[in-house]
């Protein structure tokens, strides 16, 4: 049996999304008769009725909706393939591909990469800055040679090595009532308070969630979800609400009293920052050198 072509699958998905063959054809820039013919060919190839055609319009059959769902996944993977190929082309044959979560990318990785470049000036390093969950995905899919994460894990299928340590701190602006507390916050108070937080998948968010679980309280109550530490920091300074953030990200603001750290009793907010790479793979070349530098720096 001849397999369906991608254009026909894309047409089927658009019929499902837009509700008619005519609109789907228009979105693809083809005539409606051509779209109908293409769908008929697809039905013959699969041996299924995919579209109900009536005077009132067209709609997918139950089988058509199932096939459209599968087709959507196929097209997503193909788009990912194209994006990955483009990334490989634009990396200009990078010898070392690295992904790092936000805190590591801002405070640690540039110095490590700089040392790699010092000892090997011709080494090209490609760095992607994403959250910890996305770093692990890039490593697992072979898109990068080495990753650096700040989430506690676990990381199934990945080897890990400690490279640094970090501590999270609760911060509020100077005018916040917590800034004048004489006693530490209790974990229960923190869990009950809406917080400015990072997005799900970020190492900071997962570390806070894990610390609250260990303290026996409920999960974080998000007041705002933001995509970077700087956005969280600025939101707190602007008075949006308290946040739990790496102390590395608020050193200047705490020193200048724009933010005030608030102690919390009964919670461990320290965390280990790790390098990750595919389990069972021996790192070589610039990737091995970068890992060695990172471990030595952390020690």
TrEMBL record:
PROSITE patterns reported in the protein's UniProt record: HTH_LYSR (PS50931)
Record-linked InterPro entries: LysR_HTH_N, LysR_subst-bd, WH-like_DNA-bd_sf, WH_DNA-bd_sf
Source taxon at top rank: Bacteria
Key word Cell inner membrane present: no
One Pfam assignment: HTH_1
Record's keyword terms, sorted: DNA-binding, Transcription, Transcription regulation
Keyword flag Coiled coil: no
Residue spans crossing the bilayer: none
Family membership: Belongs to the LysR transcriptional regulatory family.
UniProt protein name: LysR family transcriptional regulator
Source organism phylogeny: Bacteria, Bacillati, Actinomycetota, Actinomycetes, Pseudonocardiales
């Amino acid at each position: 049996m001849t397999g369906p072509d991608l254009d026909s699958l894309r047409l089927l998905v658009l019929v499902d999304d837009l509700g008619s063959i005519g609109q789907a054809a228009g979105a693809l820039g083809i005539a409606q008769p051509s779209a109908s013919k293409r769908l008929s060919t697809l039905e013959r190839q699969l041996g299924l009725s995919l579209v109900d055609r009536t005077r009132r319009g067209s709609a997918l059959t139950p089988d058509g909706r199932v096939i459209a769902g599968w087709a959507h996944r196929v097209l997503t993977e193909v788009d990912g393939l194209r994006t990955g190929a483009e990334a490989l082309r634009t990396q200009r044959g990078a010898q070392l591909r690295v992904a790092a979560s936000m805190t590591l990318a801002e405070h640690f990785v540039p110095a490590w990469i700089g040392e790699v470049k010092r000892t090997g000036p011709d080494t090209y390093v490609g760095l992607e800055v994403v959250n910890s969950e996305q770093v692990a995905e890039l490593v697992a899919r072979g898109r990068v040679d080495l990753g650096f994460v700040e989430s506690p894990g676990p990381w199934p299928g990945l080897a890990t090595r400690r490279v640094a340590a970090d501590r999270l701190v609760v911060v509020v602006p100077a005018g916040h009532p917590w800034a004048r507390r004489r006693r530490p916050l209790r974990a229960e108070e923190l869990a009950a308070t809406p917080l400015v937080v990072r997005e799900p998948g970020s190492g900071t968010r997962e570390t806070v969630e894990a610390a609250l679980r260990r303290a026996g309280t409920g999960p974080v109550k998000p007041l705002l979800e933001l995509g970077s530490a700087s956005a969280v920091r600025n939101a707190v300074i602007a008075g949006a609400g308290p946040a739990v953030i790496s102390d590395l990200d608020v050193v200047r603001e705490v020193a200048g009293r724009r933010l005030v750290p608030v102690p919390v009793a009964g919670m461990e907010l320290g965390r280990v920052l790790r390098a990750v790479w595919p389990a069972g793979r021996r790192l070589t070349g610039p990737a091995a050198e970068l890992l060695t530098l990172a471990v030595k720096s952390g020690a």
